[in-house]
Amino acid sequence: MSQAEAILKVATQLFAALGYDGTSTRQIAEAAGLNIATVNYHVGGKRELYLAVMERAHQAERGALERAIAETEGADPVSRVHQLADRYLDFCVDNPEVPALWMHRWLSDAGDITDLERRYVSPLVSLVKDIGGGDNEMVVWSVVWCVHGFAKGGILDQDGRRRTAGDRAALRRFRAHLHLMLHRTLGLPGDPP
């Protein structure tokens, strides 16, 4: 792994854990085992590094959505909606840093960096908002918010213990709930899969 790759990996982990505002270039350099000058040489300052991390997150998310859309092409509309939600949930569970990065952002992190939503979020919403028939932008947002919350925080069981996406039963339960929510919200025919 190149130094630039190592820096981006560490920066992704720290920005996902602490947010942009809570992470310093010094922390990134120390976690990568480098000095600040080396970090700056390979990837630039904190702002450039954050933009590179968000670009990578966007490309990964976009790739996953495009593959899911292609894989579900030709499926009946009900199955397609549920399969796309499943693929998005699986992506977020497998890549928890992506929801974490966006959750920090939505909580006013990196407020001095504008335009990320227009560049990265809007195109992804546009990819899927018409798949269930009609303009379902708020349904897409509801799925994103729910999935990100589950991928990052999990759910509490009846004893108040946190069950995360790594808990197979919790993941199954959340997936069933997501299907039911989509089914009811979109008014889909039949029972949810």
From TrEMBL:
This is TetR/AcrR family transcriptional regulator. The keyword DNA-binding applies. InterPro entries: DNA-bd_HTH_TetR-type_CS, Homeodomain-like_sf, HTH-type_TetR-like_transc_reg, HTH_TetR. Residues 1-61 form the HTH tetR-type domain. It holds the Pfam family TetR_N. It comes from Nonomuraea roseola. SUPFAM superfamilies: Homeodomain-like. Keywords: DNA-binding. Residues 24-43 bind DNA.
